[in-house]
């Protein structure tokens, strides 16, 4: 069975990863799965447990780490965020593609374990736009915003670790660019070759 494609969408905080990811999944022709992350942060207004995140306690999260159940995790502005491993393994093994939307430290951990994935770095048109977007979101205190912007500056330097850079100048444009990347990824020789080898083997046997 052909394995699914792992797509990792990452980039600095406030660049609009969540917005772009949500818009991507609203497209009618999206046929990949979303990996729901686990976090110890409090739900924001309107966030639903099991849809936006699995919201858990620190103790529960640390137990998952100890049990080896996280593909990756990071501590980010005082909270844990991480990707449950079994969903990724099962989904890819069943041939379906899966998208992770995570911050950069976690993305690096995934890349070490699964270098065959498609690593997409979402970039802000400029840093000022990043700060404005964080302030406009209105959910964080100013000192938290400053910490996030400082973290973002460092994160941008990490673009070199990725396969693709997508500028988020407009959400709909970023979505189209990501869809194009996924189309191309599915055509990479190392993804289609096993299928052809199997076909040749069948021909040779008949
Ligand atoms: P927020 O608190 O705004 O929902 O997310 C904060 C940051 O954590 C964002 O950059 C988001 O992409 C990232 N994040 C969400 N889920 C995960 C995850 O499972 N692993 C890691 N490493 N980062 C995550």
UniProtKB/TrEMBL annotation:
Enzymatic reactions: GMP + ATP = GDP + ADP
Gene Ontology CC: cytosol
Main enzyme class: transferase
Record-linked PROSITE patterns: GUANYLATE_KINASE_1, GUANYLATE_KINASE_2
CDD domains assigned: GMPK
GO MF, one example: ATP binding
Places the protein is found: Cytoplasm
Residue intervals of the Guanylate kinase-like domain: 4-183
Protein family: Belongs to the guanylate kinase family.
Role summary: Essential for recycling GMP and indirectly, cGMP.
Name of the protein described by the UniProt record: Guanylate kinase
Source organism: Weissella minor
